Structures are given as structure tokens and as C-alpha cells.
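request received
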Amino acid sequence: MTNSISDFDKADLLFVIGSNTTECHPIIGRFIRQAVKFKETKLIVADPRNIELARVADIHLRHKPGTDVALINAMMNVIIKENLQDQEFIDKRTEGYDELVKTVNNYDTERATEITGVPQDEINAAARLFAEADSAIVTYSMGITQHITGTDNVKSLANIVMLTGNIGREGTGLSPLRGQNNVQGACDMGALPNVYPGYQNVDNSEIQKKFESAWGCKLSAKPGLTTTMMTDAMHEGRIKAMFVVGENPLMSEPHLNHARKAMERLAFLVVQDIFPTETSLMADVILPAAVFAEKDGTYTNTERRIQKLRKAIDPPAEAKSDWEIINMLAERLGHTFGFKSTAEIMDEIASLTPSYGGISHNRLDTGGLQWPCPNRDHPGTPFLHKDLFTRGKGKFHAVEYKSPAESTSEEFPLILTTGRMLEHWHTGSMSRRSDVLDALQPNGMIDIHPDDALKLGITDGDIVAVSSARGRIKTRAHITDKASPGVAYMAFHWSEAPANILTNPALDPFAKIPEYKVSAVKAELLVMDKERQDNQ
Amino acid sequence: MIKTDDASAEEVSTTITLTIDGREIETRDGATVLEAALASGIIIPTLCHDPDLRPYGACRLCVVEIEGMRGLVPSCTTLAREGMIIQTNTANVKKSRRITMELIVANHPADCLTCAKNQDCRLQHFASYLGVDQEHCDRLRKSTQVLPVDRRHPAFDFDPNKCILCAKCVRACHEVTCAAVIDLSYRGYDAKISTFGDKSWIEANCRSCGDCVDRCPTGALAPKNEMKGDRSVKTVCPYCGVGCSLYLGIRDNQIVNIKGDKKSPVNKGGLCVKGRFGFDFVKHPERLTRPLIRKKDVGRDVKIDRSNYRDFFREATWEEALELVADNLAACKEKEGPDSIGVLSSAKFTNEENYVVQKFARAVIGTNNIDHCARL
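response:
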């Protein structure tokens, strides 16, 4: 996030797009609802589904999955046409505005309605409401990023934020809500194939030298493979061995059948985890790890706040903290890290990572610190881009709409989007083992709109076979107007019916993120599906 | 967080002076008399006041006498004014409070010893603070009406017999979580807290955040699976990216209760269903406790699941497991080159662990094939 969680009740308007905030980030969802209810903050929600926030929104734009660029371009078209842009901000702090205007000119509301399915007057109203707000925040999550145009979608949101001058001030900004508890930190720490900690490029020779001298070894300047590319590399035999720590890709990867086949080809697989998961049970060696309550360290949350977690209990039997295990393994491979505590590791992080330069465990005892925090006296940074963007001037990236990788066909007439639900978490290895959470939501389901259900002859609670070009699962049908006509939805927590058997592994060319949010599927009653298979 | 309607006055930070029990006290303009008193260490009993919620005036325990105002005034709904002279401890105040408490207690079940809130109950605390006469209570007791207890929610029970109608739960559900699932329903003696249509909480649109349970001053809303801890440890929730700060209550090396951190700039005490009720996975019997090695000749395509995996893996010492891993990784690196090895780190790991894992991939293996599930 460029801003802080506390900014949500300082904005005049919140624009939530591609985020089911009340289920996936419940406490932020609560702050948004408080702002709307008590501070008269305006709320625009853009989401194909009739999510909880949409019900309290001033405007709900129910666009078709994967049409975000067209929607945002049309909103900017209206803003520019009606001269509602923040010209002073554009002149002073940005560049590339003329190209933006040229591109956006091609997206009048008529064309946008055709692409997105959102009525013209709603696009007009949303654009005006957004532009007229003194301070606005754009909040998004995986509904924006998990598309083959994920990068373009984010650029579009950056465009509309800059066009209206809604960045670098309190109560404004671009707020991607990070999914996992420490996905922000994992990125900050360089658990990415192209950067060292602090987003320092691996192919920059000066940076390389800095890390080589700090770590006392030669380092590779060749950027590595992303998760999704590793799957293909395993399949093609380019990757022979995998070391997987605390992840369960055989539930979370798209096109699971492909991912499973890829992993089957490995010569050697080690998995370090807390439970026997789909992935760990495929390993040659499973190493038992400690959970959050059994270790010290820090997490960095969605607002870049580094907070301390503290060991409360001992791990069971011989399970160990992940960092201790890696330490031991490194030593066996002839490289002694020599870390005695997580505080020591943080000191090394601070010495090599400019944005974490001022972080040390003993500064984090109260509320934590928000990076960038370059030195020991720095109080942290609640919002970014105050006077300057990282690159100096903010650049408008004019982007054209591209349709999703997969569209419906006679065989697969429904679009499937996937996501999380309130009571469960990701691949379910933790939440499905919580008695309370599992009692609240014991079964997976597919949300289908009543219109589609009528056409398909499905009633609520029926067991249906759902298939895509990649695989087939069976689950329970949940008939609800939360789904849009033609757009079904599944959460991906259930190993009994893994939604990711169905999802499309097509990638965004830059971010290499799969298009989980648009897969063409078919849903039919299980008996019909069986009958057809019998007759084949 | 929502406070009084005049919360904006806080920013101007004008202060006013008033006198409580003969003491001159400074407070911010816009504070209530109760807030002014509590802030300066003067105890006024109350069951319905909550700094996160709007003043409500339900329990009537906080009455005081204010010069120039008629009768006894509830201090929680009265704004402090410059020059006010307030008495919190007069004979009238004491008598009124005692009778009010006796009225509340008269119909309250007296099963304190077996109640989940025993010793953690505001009603118990102030009943003993004010002194309640058993005989008075017997005389005040109406015919006892026993209402059914709703035990269907997996995380908490609702016993309307223990409810004192302070409406903290209702206000939290409307003002803090904005879910508005519960409300006061029926009238007079029949008044109670209920969901729409008086259904069980589990059937209502309740999101199970437990904010109401956390605020309930009696045993009416009581967590099912909590116990008192010996100590509490402040840490961060391991589920989503909001990063809610919380306290784990610990006893016998187990998490026995969870409380939101009210001072946290992130969550201001709030938690969702996962953060409040979803940590029992920690002690799940399926936790991996020793290194496991796949038995010889068990192919990677063999169908193994949670129920049968012990047949296909054997326990090993750390020594043996680490040696096997190190040997295989070293052999692969030597034969196929470092880029034939891939490392997946985790968004569930701490920063320190992610740092160590990427350092391991880069410095020890020699590859940049390191990623985690940010895209998934």
C-alpha cells in the first residue's frame, strides 16, 4: 500500500475493485464499512460478484471478469471529457499524459459498456463521483492482479489515481491489499527470482558485488524462474530438484493436474511444513517445522508495517523453526550462516536492505515500523510518494484492453472466478484443521446465479460436476445472486474439490501471474455427467 | 474508531476544567463526565460503557449528582462542561447504585463457579464492589423465566438468562463490525438480544468475529473453548496480510485464549473469526513432529493422503534427514548445475526466515530460482 490502514477513514471516497475485503481482509473491511456508515465516505465497488461491500456501496459496477482496463479507461475518458482531472498535479508531478489522453479517447462509455457489460450511466456516475472527491483511495487485490493483464490492470489504477491527484497525501493512495500475512515481507526479503532483499536487481553488477562481499561467495547474475515457470521447467526436466518450504503448490497452482505431473518428474523433492499436505506427501524428505506461535521474528503487513511475533510455546517433539533448519542445512553444504537468533538475522537484513536500514528487533516492541525506514532514528513512513515518485515524475502508462485468455464456448459456457472465503485460508492446511473454522464451513461449493441454475436444471445443494478443458471436479451447487449471470465462483480451499484443477495457467507476460479469475467451465448435475460418460 | 459524536474536538485539543468530588480536573472538550472521571482515576461503576462504542446509558450504574441538574444523572451520556461540579459518591448515589445492581442481580443465575466468565465478569466485579443484599434480591426477584440457551455456534454460547441488556454486543455489531446481525427485540420483561427472526446465531448472517463475545460483561456470551492462561504473549495473526496484533493466553505449552490488541494501530483490538477462533490447528494431532523419509520404492505417483501416509514414510533423525537432503542437493548441483534446483519460500514465513531461505538459494545453491506464492 502507498498509504496506511488508518487512511481509510480519512478519505472522502473509497474505490474498491477486485477485492472482497470483508471476507479476505476482514478488519480492513470493517474499517471501510465504519467509514461508509459513520463518516459519510462514498464507496464505489467494482466487482462481478454481489459482495458484502457492494451492498453498502453508492455505486456497484458489476463488470465482466477481465474487463478492468476497459472500465477504468472509460472512467478516465469521462473524467477528461468533463475536465474533472487534477491538472495541477498532472502538470507538476507526472509525464506521459498526452499518450494517456490519446488512448483513453478510444474508450467512450458506449464501447466500454459493450466490453464490460456495465451500463453507460453507471460508468458516468462512478467517474464523476470519483473525480469530485477531494481525497480518494483505490483499493484492490487479486481480482485485479490475477489476470493475463494483471500488470495492465494495476497500471490503469495508477493512471486514474494520478489523473485525479489522489496520491502522496493523507487519505489518498493506491492500496493493494496483500493476501498472506507476510507476502509483503517475503517480497521485501527477496524471495523473488529477480531481486535481492529490498528489490535490488540480481543482474545489477554493483548490487551483486555488494552481496558477494557481504555473504563471502560468488553469486549468479542470471534472474531465476518464478513459481509458475518452475512448474514448466520441472515438466521439461530443466529443474531436477525442488526445496519447498511452507508452501503447498499442489493446491495453489493453476491447472493442478499439470503441476502434479511436473512434480512427479522431479529426481528429488524436499518439503518443510507443519502438516502432511498435498505437496509434502509427494516429497522424498519431509522436515517438520514450527508454527507462528512457536517462533520469534517479524512479519510485514499490507501497509508495510514490520511487526514482531514472539515465541509463546515450544514446537511439538522435534519440530524446529524454519530458519534453524535452513541454518543447519547450509552448514552441511559448507556455508556457515552462524545466526544465533532472529534478531541477528534482522541486523544483517538492515545492513544490506536500504528500506529496512533502521529496523532492529528492539525498535519494534510497541506498534512496529512502516518501511522505508532507512536509519535508526527514522520514524517510518506512513505514506509514500509525498513529493516525488520513486522514479521522479509519475508516468502514465496508456494501456489498451485485451480480452482474457479464455472465453466461453458451447462446451464451456460459464466463466469461473476463484478466491477465498472468510472462514478458510488458502490451501486449507491450517484452517481446515481448526475445529471451529471447519465446523462453520465444512464443505466447498460453487456459487451459481439463479438464471444459470434454471438453464442447467440445477437446484441449491445439488452435487454437480464442474469441468474445464483441464480437468473435472465434483462439488455442491450454491444457488445465489451473489454470482453474476454467466459467472460462477469457487473458493479454492477444499482438497476434496480443488478449484485449481479447473483454473487456467495462462500468465501475465510481465508478472507471470496466472489468470485464476477467468476460466471457461461447464457445470452439470453429477447424474447427467455420469450418464454421458457411461454412454461414451 | 467511533467514539462520541464530538470526537473531532479531540483534534482541536481544547481542555476544560471541572470539579469531581472536590478535585479539580482537566479534560478534553467533548469528553463525557464518565470519561473525565475514569481518566483521572475516579472509579465509577458501569456495565454498558465501552470506549470504542457510543454512549448508551443502559445500566444506570454510573449515575452521579451534578450541581444545577435535577436528580441523578448518568455520567456516561452527559457531556462534561466547563466549571461543572460533580459528586460521585453521595448517599443518594450509593443507594441508587446498590438498588440498580440488586435489580440486575435479582434475576441473574447464581452459578458463578461453573460460569465461563467466573472472575472475568464485570457484573460479578461491580456486584461485589457495590455490595448486594441477598434478602433484597430475593424480594426483588420476579417469577423466574428460564430461556433456552443457544449452544449451536461452534465457538460460543448465548445464554439470555445471564444477559443484562447492556446492549454492548448489539452496539459492537452495529458500530464496530457494521454487520448488524443482532438487536434488542421484544419489549419490557420479554426484551432480549436476538438475531433477525430470533434464529440461532449460527443460522443468522453472523460472521463469527466474536467482537460481541469479547465485550460481553457477563457470561451471557461466552466462548466455548477458552481457558484462563498463566501468561499472555503479544504476537501477530498468521492468516491474512492485515497483520492484526493479538495476545495469546498460554498455559501448559498451549494456546488457551486469544485477545485482540486494543492498542494496535493496525486492528484496534478487532479480530475476525480466523484470528479469534482459528488457532486450534496449532495442536492438531496431524502436526509433523519428526523428519520423515519416503520409503524405498515408493514412487512419486503413488496416491498418498493424510490417512495413510505413515505406511509410505518412515521417521528419521534430523542427522539422517539433513544428510540425505544435503547429499542430494549437492549431487544435483554438481551434475546438473545450480539452476537445476528450485527453491520455494513462503509468504507464511517471517522476514528473517525468508531472508535466510533466499540467501540459502543464492549463496549456498548458487541459483536465483527462488520464489514464493505471491502470485498464487
